[in-house]
Structures are given as structure tokens and as C-alpha cells.
Amino acid sequence: MSAANYRFLFDRAFTPDTNVARPHVTLTYAQSLDGKIAGIGGRQLILSGLESMKATHILRLKHDAILVGIGTVLNDDPRLTVRLNDDDLPPGSEPIQHPQPIILDSTLRFPLSAKLVFPSSPKKPWIFTGPVHDRQRRKEIEALGAKVIVLSVDSQGHLSIPDLLSNLHQQSIRSLMVEGGASVISSFLKSGQVDSFLLTIAPVFVGEDGVSAVQDAEGAAKFADISYYTLGQDVMMMARPQKG
Length: 244
Description:
Distance between the termini: 38 Å
Largest sheet: 9 strands, mixed
Order of helices and strands: HEEHEHEEHEHEHEEEE
Helix content: 10-25%
Strand order of the largest sheet: 6-5-4-3-7-1-8-11-10
Number of strands: 11
Mean pLDDT: 91
Shape: globular
């Protein structure tokens, strides 16, 4: 598919509300028809087709930063880069810039062998962790070029989403793409801090042993301004969560 087929993404502005001191947050992920995003035990599944995978990389291109949880790092070992060629872009586009990788890791389990800290990584990750963590491991991670930032946690040990977004805003991050995994998706939906929602649905069933996208339906979000796009065999839904 040519760049013209993705005009709905290239033309969309992911800009922050000037009335709030946080980035514009885009939550996006791919799921099966039965709502699963991973296999047994969090095993990685390639759900998106080539066309919708390209859409994911266009979204990465249009955001300042990209966020995943430590579970995604441990299970998938992602690079979180933009994998597009210049001919994938509309004429006159700016050179490809990779988003800043953001990792939520409340107890600092980040592996020293992760691809995100390879010398070839275009941007080393910012790892947000809780106050209680291994100080020696922090030194080892920082020695690889990553930045470790401490945030407050709630009574369940989860990192504070408002504090995270405030910190990113202070570091000039104006748009944030959140990709998962399941606990991160649920946390952001319940936080009320999501501005854009893009869901890719793949024509496949995973089964009851797979990992569901949303772990807790309490405070489930409702959506408005819904649009649907066909990308190969997949369907992408674009919407805006209703506030309040």
C-alpha cells in the first residue's frame, strides 16, 4: 500500500491540549477477534498484517515517545524504532526520526541484554521505576546509556500515570504513543489520560488461554468520533475516549 492509503494517519495531528501540562497520549495495540494481545504466559503473537504493521510505524513516526511495560520488554525484546523507508512517506516529508523509548518498570527488572541498550540503538530508553529498587542494577543499566527515573507508586505498587506524564512534559515530550502490554493498557484506560485510541483487529481467534487486552473492566472507557479503516485483512478503529 502506498503513502496515499495511510493519509488518514499522516494528516492526523497528535498535539497536546494547551490547557494541560502533559503530552497527547495515543493508546494503540493489536488484538484478535476474541480480544487477546498475547499467547499463553505473555508469549508474543504476530497479529497485525503487513499493512497494519506499517500503520504502527507511521504512528511511531508521528510521536515524540513510545511507551511499553517491562513485561513487553521481557517477552518481546523490542527495539521500538520506526521501520519505514523514505519512499513509504508522502513527498516532502521530514527525515525519519525515531521516538524516545519509555519503559514502565516499577521494580527495575530491565534486562542488561535488551536490544534497547545495544550500541546500535538510535535512542537509549528512559526507564521509570519505583522508589524501591536495586541500586547496583540501576548503575549497571545507566552504564549502558539508559536513563533511570524514579516515580511514586500507589498502594498496589503501580507507577503514577499523572506523575509520569508530568515528568515527560517537563522533558519536552509533547506526544506519547502507548503500545502495551495488558497491565499498561488497563492502567492508561482507567487513568482517564488517553486522548486518541487506535485499535487494530486481526481476523484470528487465539483462545481462552491467551492474554486479554484489558485485565480489569472497572471504569471501562467509552468512545466517540469513531472511524474504521481496512488495512489488508485487518480493521483499524480510530476513536476518542469520552471524558467524564
